[in-house]
Structures are given as structure tokens and as C-alpha cells.
Amino acid sequence: MKALYIAASGMKAQELNVEVISNNVANMRTTGYKRQRADFQDLLYENQRRMGTQTSDTGTIVPNGVQIGSGVQTVATTRIMSQGTASQTGRELDVAIRGEGFFQIERPDGTTGYTRDGSFARSDTGQLVTNDGYTVLPGVVIPENSRDITINNQGLVQAMNDAGQVVNLGQIELARFVNKAGLEAIGDNLFLETEASGAPQVGTPEQDGFGGVKQGFIEASNVDAVRELSDLIAAQRAYEMNSKIVQAADQMYSTTSNLR
After folding, report:
1. Boundaries of each Flagellar basal-body/hook protein C-terminal domain copy (predicted)?
2. What average pLDDT does range 135-149 have in this prediction?
């Protein structure tokens, strides 16, 4: 009896589904987090009577046939890259992206990571960095005597010096990808380029299709609590139904073994 194995595959799939939902809920307050969705595929089929086969010498064919499935498998955990809500913070080094693009971050090993988390800070050398101390590329240095720091919608960073003059301190650039859902999440609010994502295209905010940036804001998670709750209920019910099938198959096995 294959029902046990089919139902077991359904329980395993829904267990993973709940894990994905729980990670979304856990990151509801994570800046720039993008929710995931579990995607499933049916497994191979056993053809006990193939549709389209002839049943007589006169050419009569089977219209439907008999196929028995083998269950379900998880094929992907798709990341939904929709825009999160902009949350005002008032901090002069907080920056939110409105539209397409990712901030470029230099990791300790020299590789480039990508993030939507624009909660930046200033290092002891004046470098614009992330909360983990990673440099924001292509590099912006804010001198110690700088005041009234401004970041316009095109990512130009300016400040006033001791002489009361407004000086340019650097330019924040964004990167975008043909398939941004193909980026690899590595934690720390960072993504890495993959073959699936394609090579990054770097440009200036609000130019050539790139989104703009907004000073004093950060992008909140795009997790919808109501949707996650409804998905969780559906996953629980699906898991419960598969467990009922396991119980039913076990009872049928028991009945068969007790036949006299």
C-alpha cells in the first residue's frame, strides 16, 4: 500500500512549509527582509492503464486511463522581492530604497554583498558602514567636522564643513539584477550574486530604471502578518489531513493482517 509513503511526503512538505512561514514571522521586524514562499511539485506517476492505448482492433482508445501518483516534493522556496513599507526614523544616515536596486556592501573577504537594509552608521575613520561594520560601496567618507549631513534622492552625500561650505562627500550607487529572486541569502541581511541572478548592473539612484533613495527612512519587512497566519492555518490543516491518511492506511493494514 503506497498511501503511507504518499501521505508521508505530504507531511514532510507541509513541515517545510511551516518552517518557511515561521522564518517569515520571525523576521517581521527585520529591516529590508523579503518573505519566502514554499513551492511544490507532484512526483512521478505509475501508469496502470495508459490513456490513449487501443482497447480493440477497431481502434477504440482509452480516454482517461489510470495513473497513481507518488506524492509531493518541495521544488523551491521562492523569495518575494516586493517593496516593503518605508518607516521613518529621523536618523541622518538611515536610507531606504524606493524601487529597484540593492546597496552594495564589501564583506570582510573582499566579496560584494547586496542588501535593502539602509540602516548605516559612521566608523571610527568616518567611513559609511553597515551595523556590522562592513563598508558601503563605492565608499563614502564623512570627516569628523562634518555637520548637517544630507543624502538626496540620487544618493549624493553632502555635508557642511567648519567654514560653512557645503561639500560633496561621495555617491551612493545601487545594483540591480535580471532575476533578483535568484540571489542567495547568507544572513546578516545580505544577498550574494549567483548564476541564477545574473551579473549586477550598477548605476545611480533615479537613473536608468534604478529606484531612488530616501534619507531618514528604512525599508521594513514585506511580511504580511495576516497572510502568514492564513498560510499557517492552511499548512496545519494539510498536515493534519495527511496524518489522517497515515492512520487510515495503518488501520487498513491492521484489518488485512487480522483476516482469518
Report:
1. 214-259
2. 90
Q: Which three cell numbers stand for residue 175?
A: 545594483
Residue 247 exposure: Cα atoms within 13 Å on the Cβ side? 6
| Residues 18-47: tens digit of each pLDDT | 999 999 999 999 999 999 999 999 988 888
Cα separations (Å) of 139 from 11, 109, 123? Answer: 49, 16, 12
* pTM value > 0.70: yes
Q: Is the peptide bond prior to 200 cis by the omega test (within 30 degrees of 0)?
A: no
Distance between start and end Cα atoms, the chain: 20
All structural domains of the chain with their residue ranges: 3-81+223-257, 86-219
Joined together, the cell numbers standing for residue 240 give: 493534519
Backbone angles phi, psi at 253, to 5 degrees: -60, -45
Give the mean pLDDT of 133-140. Answer: 94
For 28, 97, 249, the CA distances from 32, given in Å and listed in that order, are 10, 9, 46
